[in-house]
Specification:
The complex is a heterodimer of chains A (483) and B (308). Chain A is α+β, with helices and mostly antiparallel strands and 483 residues long. Chain A contains eleven helices and 25 strands. The longest helix of chain A has 17 residues. In chain B, helix 2 packs across helix 3. Chain B is built from nine helices and ten strands. Chain B is α/β, with parallel strands linked by helices. The chains are: A alpha+beta (483), B alpha/beta (308). The structure holds guanosine-5'-diphosphate (GDP). The site of guanosine-5'-diphosphate has 17 residues of chain A, from helix 2. Guanosine-5'-diphosphate binds next to helix 2 of chain A.
């Protein structure tokens, strides 16, 4: 299989190829594990490096891999001056290459613990993670941390690339030991889609092409073959979701709702429900620039026309009637803190998700200890912390769990004081419990805090009316302020 | 829509995904910003950008103007093409030239490419953005163009002085963009971030997008200067005694100011030829462009100053 090396073949097939959706994967590893060499190798062998860039590499590189006549790939990858000066990768970088089967987006993530947030950023929306380890060293705490973060961000497929296998004489036993240790750890996190591959990024063994000389004992696919076969997330089988981005009214007679389907499918005639208003309507038309379509599926950016006039605004969700998302005032979520300013309780933030922006209070309650993988209690979350929080809204919020729909279950938190993105998060479930703030020693009375709308409902309820006289007798226990 | 568009086969999943992503970004910015503007440079990336904007807001019109920073030294054909497109699609286009060009007679020949680019492009852009009070400017930059762009965000945050601070960019998670800014601050938005040069060409072909014919090979008059082939059509180009005009089969891989955009020898006369040429390219796209060569990491410097 010489597939990659001939660009002419690429041209010849470029009309037929790319039947598969592009695969986005992240690469993580510690400094000197060979990540730059590996990515460089993939770009190089797939001819994504153009020759003038290559010349620059040969010119600028001090420690050329002269024996193989390859350039110092790290120079190609570390784009920013600050990074070149320090010789490390700080920020996430995006690279592109394609084979005759598929196109790829490589998200190159930094390793250091202090850049956990960058790793998490890169992991969002990724289909797969390639974790790199040095065969001489094996699994590190950092490898485990990357696995946990990736898994938390929703990545389900992991490849462990055991690099520099040439430096341990292609030792099968050592490789299998490392692979086993990793599988055991990953399985304990609930990850089941794992491949371990022995590679030499430098020599190009098992990277693009399978090596039959030094590692005849290895029966699996090369790294690139594994990537070509990997799955991409598809959300066509879940309930219809279209967050409304904007209302399109070019003239009196046309009113369309523009947005991208993030779940399910839709066709003219389908009945839908608009949230949060819970009004129903039927789809009249699916309008796109090219033609009036007879169906749209998850991923498509469309304009929907309904059969009746309903008040619909940006941020509303057009949903299937049978499988609706969750609506509520309280949700449980996992978050990763991205800002120097911690994520703190009792403060109003903006939360943005699926084109909705609303006020939220965040109640952090636990954080991950990356060494043990266990959660411990906290009251605030600092930069690079990953933890669990409760979200409290004044106005009704609409989500799916991140597990079910990663577009409807993802959010960012913005600090209204400086507009920084403080955290990213993933909804785990709805929590409808009422917050208990002020119970003192007197066990006859408790003070409850709840959203105004819930309180109003409660006050209009039959039970409340029955108890009204009794409640009025209760002495006021001091002021509760909520600002 | 015309019949031939209706019969167009569907895009492959790769291009479709890129298109969907760009449309989402356009709509998001139009919904969240007060005064967006599309930076239209007349080149192929701008052509794709414009096409995507028309798609994003269809059947409505593009709800913001286009801005062209005209240095006065663009290829004549570019200006003719621009005016044709504006008319054909009924676009709202603002062309802006830095007034210093006239008062100080700044030209690429007299001031050198670095100073000229700074005044006529970077500063002109800043002036035009200030005058228009634009809070979001769409650009056609791609991450694959150059290492300094590989780490660029989709929403690239700029201070009130239009500065780009690579260390202080907002993290972008999922596809949720933080569009909250203070008065005077702005964002540059790059809907084509994830496209490669090849994707651009394949999309132009699939979607039948009109582009300036300078991209296609033809016998053209050129002079060789500092290792670059410069188009010799404009009377403002003064030839040195030892320079002479030759007629060569050339095309342009990037279009800008004609004295700074070198032609490449090529026989690629059709989109298919170009796609084949790029797939086996030996020169990356910006090589014909002088601006990147001025100093190491020059693009990063220029971006910090407020260039795209
Ligand atoms: N022998 C051997 N050396 C390697 C291999 N991969 C990388 N290296 C070397 O390891 C060093 C660090 O590699 P580099 O790619 O810069 O690591 P990074 O810090 O992870 O990006 C370089 O000197 C590489 O040449 C390999 O598979 N075998």
């Amino acid at each position: 299989m010489s597939g990659l090396t001939l660009t002419k073949e690429l041209v010849a097939t470029s009309e037929k190829n790319r039947k598969l959706s592009p695969l986005k994967f992240i690469t993580c590893g510690s400094v000197d594990d060979g990540k730059s060499t590996l990515i460089g190798r993939l770009l190089w062998d797939s001819k994504a490096v153009k020759s003038d860039q290559a010349e620059k590499l040969y010119r600028d590189g001090r420690r050329n891999n002269s024996e193989l006549n390859l350039p110092e790939f790290a120079l190609l990858l570390d784009g920013l001056q600050a990074e070149r000066e320090q010789g490390i990768t700080i920020d996430v970088a995006y690279r592109y290459f394609s084979t005759d089967k598929r196109s790829f987006i490589v998200v190159d993530c930094p390793g250091h613990e202090q850049y956990t947030r960058n790793m998490a950023t890169g992991a969002t929306k990724a289909d797969l993670a390639v974790l790199l380890v040095d065969a001489r060293i094996g699994i590190l705490e950092q490898t485990k941390r990357h696995t946990m973060i990736g898994s938390m961000m929703g990545i389900k497929q992991f490849i462990l690339a055991v690099n520099k296998i040439d430096l341990i004489d292609y030792d099968r036993e050592r490789f299998e030991h490392i692979a086993r240790e990793f599988s055991e750890f990953a399985l304990s996190l609930g990850i089941t889609n794992i491949s371990s591959i022995p590679i030499s990024a430098l020599k190009g063994e098992n990277v693009v092409n399978k090596d039959y000389e030094n590692m005849a004992w290895y029966e699996g696919n090369s790294l690139l073959e594994t990537l070509e076969l990997a799955n991409v997330k598809s959300k066509q089988s879940v309930g219809l979701r279209m967050p409304v981005q904007r209302v399109c009214r070019p003239n009196e007679s046309f009113r369309g709702y523009q947005g991208t389907l993030v779940g399910g499918a839709v066709k003219p005639g389908d009945s839908v429900i608009i949230l949060p208003s819970e009004k129903t309507a039927n789809i009249l038309q699916i309008v796109t620039f090219d033609l009036v379509r007879n169906a749209a599926v998850a991923g498509d950016a469309v304009t929907l026309v309904l059969d009746r006039n309903i008040d619909i605004a940006r941020g509303d969700i057009i949903s299937s009637i049978e499988a609706k998302p969750m609506m509520g005032y309280h949700f449980d979520a996992n978050v990763i803190v991205l800002s120097e300013n911690a994520l703190v309780p009792n403060k109003y933030y903006w939360l943005k998700s699926a084109c909705r922006r609303q006020k939220v209070m965040v109640e952090p309650y636990s954080a991950v200890d990356f060494r043990t993988g266990l959660f411990h209690d906290v009251e605030r979350l600092e930069l690079n912390n990953i933890g669990k929080v409760k979200l409290h809204f004044d106005e009704i919020a609409i989500f799916d769990s991140y597990e079910e729909n990663d577009d409807m279950g993802a959010f960012i938190i913005i600090d209204p004081e400086n507009n920084h993105t403080v955290a990213g998060g993933m909804i785990s479930s709805k929590s409808e419990e009422i917050r208990h703030i002020g119970a003192d020693n007197n066990d006859e009375f408790v003070l409850l805090s709840m959203p105004k709308k819930v309180a109003e409902k409660l006050q209009n309820s039959e039970i409340y009316k029955l108890l009204e006289e009794e409640i009025k007798q209760i002495p006021l226990q001091g002021k509760i302020s909520k600002s | 829509m015309s019949e031939d568009i209706k019969q167009k086969p569907p895009l492959d999943p790769h291009l479709k995904a890129l298109e969907n992503e760009a449309i989402f970004i356009f709509r998001e910015v139009a919904a969240e910003f007060e005064r967006p503007v599309l930076l239209y440079s007349v080149g192929k990336d701008s052509a794709v950008l414009l096409h995507l904007a028309r798609k994003a807001f269809f059947p409505g019109k593009i709800p913001f103007p286009l801005l062209h920073i005209d240095t006065g030294w663009k290829f004549k054909e570019m200006i003719k093409f621009r005016d044709g497109i504006v008319k054909q699609y009924g676009l709202d286009l603002v062309a802006y030239t830095n007034p210093r060009a006239k008062t100080e007679e700044i030209t690429p020949f007299t001031h050198g490419s670095a100073i000229y680019t700074d005044i006529m492009k970077t500063q002109a852009l800043r002036q035009a953005l200030d005058i228009g009070e634009y809070d979001a400017a769409f650009g056609g930059a791609r991450r694959d163009e150059e290492p300094a762009r590989a780490k660029e965000r989709i929403y690239s945050f700029r201070t009130a002085n239009h500065r780009w601070d690579p260390r202080n960019q907002r993290p972008e998670l999922f596809n949720i963009y933080n569009g909250m800014i203070k008065r005077g601050e702005s964002v540059r938005v790059f809907p084509l971030s994830n496209w490669t040069e090849l994707d651009i060409w394949r999309y132009i072909k699939e979607e039948n997008i009109p582009i300036v014919s300078l991209y296609f090979s033809k016998k053209r008059p050129v002079v060789e200067r500092d290792g670059m082939l410069i188009l010799a059509e404009d009377e403002r180009l003064k030839l040195a005694p030892n320079e002479k005009v030759q007629y060569l089969d050339v095309r342009f891989r990037t279009l800008g100011c004609f004295p700074l955009s070198g032609a490449v020898r090529s026989k690629a006369r059709t989109l298919d030829d170009i796609i084949a040429e790029i797939d086996s390219a030996t020169i990356s796209e910006r090589e014909g462009r002088m601006i990147d060569k001025d100093q190491a990491a020059s693009m990063e410097m220029k971006k910090r100053e407020g260039y795209f």
